[in-house]
């Protein structure tokens, strides 16, 4: 278990500076770092005397990670309403990300930063690559290239990924009937099934940040699949159309599999002289008609 340190300095400017200076030292020493901010500008001693030790223990449990604290303080201290301010803010924050434990965490934090600053995520990725190279750290192109080529995937796998992309980027605003339709079809991969189930759970809990919460709750293997999905070069504002197109494609794919199955059974029964082949032929024709309806 990695040793953990919780910093609790005074809430004035000197205390914040002390925390910002102490975090990188502790991280380089291999410690897990959290920062406790005492509310209402009080110092820790005053808070304990006024509120009690139990209240202070609650603050410890709610302490932010060292990196979250660094980023939030930097955002508060920078005016990023202008392009120049955004560039300065990115330059101040990116060095913190060198302490991330994995490329998955790096990409997640870059995505959150891009959303807060309303700038192109790819620009931040490119700047982070420069910093990494300058520090002698190898860049993992498999995760860090924003517009990387999609691996060769079959149409069903692609449709499932597109479906999840649209669900997640739609902010969870999907009707229960629509989700029931997806439940009925299911997913052909355990990773995408788990991502979908977590998405439904977070939507039901009205998560304010589904992407961040998904990364927090998924294992690293499933988070890697989520990263592939979120990096798809699709229009976020077309999420509704993507959902409908994917549902349609997955329906057709499922029906085509059923058609092949019953057609094969019909052939086998007919060769064996079994009259069940007529029943299978009728079922094959019914499925074929269903496929035609979707294309109409």
Automatic annotation (TrEMBL):
Domain DNA primase DnaB-helicase binding: 67-121
Any single Pfam family the record assigns to this protein: Toprim_2
GO cellular component: cytoplasm
Matches recorded under InterPro entries: DNA_helicase_N/primase_C, DNA_primase_DnaB-bd, DnaG_primase
GO BP term (any one): DNA replication, synthesis of primer
Record-listed E.C. numbers: 2.7.7.-
Single annotated GO MF: nucleotidyltransferase activity
Keywords, comma-separated and alphabetical: Nucleotidyltransferase, Transferase
Keyword match Nucleotidyltransferase: yes
Name of the protein described by the UniProt record: DNA primase
Biological source species: bioreactor metagenome
């Amino acid at each position: 278990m990695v040793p953990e340190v919780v910093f609790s300095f005074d809430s004035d400017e000197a205390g914040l500076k002390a925390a910002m200076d102490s975090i990188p030292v502790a991280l380089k020493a291999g410690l897990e770092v959290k920062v406790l901010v005492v509310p209402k500008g009080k110092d820790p001693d005053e808070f304990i005397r006024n509120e009690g030790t139990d209240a202070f223990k609650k603050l410890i449990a709610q302490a932010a990670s060292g990196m979250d604290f660094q980023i939030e303080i930097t955002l508060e201290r920078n005016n990023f309403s202008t392009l120049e301010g955004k560039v300065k803010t990115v330059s101040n924050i990116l060095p913190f990300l060198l302490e991330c434990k994995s490329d998955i965490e790096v990409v997640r934090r870059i995505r959150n930063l891009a959303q807060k600053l309303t700038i192109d995520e790819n620009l931040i990725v490119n700047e982070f690559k420069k910093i990494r190279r300058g520090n002698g750290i190898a860049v993992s192109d498999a995760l860090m290239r924003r517009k990387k080529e999609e691996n060769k995937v079959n149409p069903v796998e692609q449709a499932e990924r597109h479906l999840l992309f649209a669900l997640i980027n739609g902010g969870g605003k999907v009707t229960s009937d629509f989700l029931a339709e997806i439940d009925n079809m299911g997913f052909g991969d355990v990773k995408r099934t788990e991502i979908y189930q977590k998405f439904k759970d977070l939507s039901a809990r009205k998560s304010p940040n589904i992407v961040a919460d998904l990364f927090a709750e998924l294992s690293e293997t499933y988070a890697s699949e989520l990263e592939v999905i979120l990096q798809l070069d699709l229009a976020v504002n077309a999420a509704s159309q993507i959902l409908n197109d994917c549902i349609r494609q997955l329906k057709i794919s499922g029906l085509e599999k059923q058609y092949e199955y019953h057609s094969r059974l019909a052939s086998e029964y007919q060769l064996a002289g079994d009259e069940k082949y007529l029943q299978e032929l009728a079922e094959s024709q019914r499925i074929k008609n269903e496929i035609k309806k979707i294309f109409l």
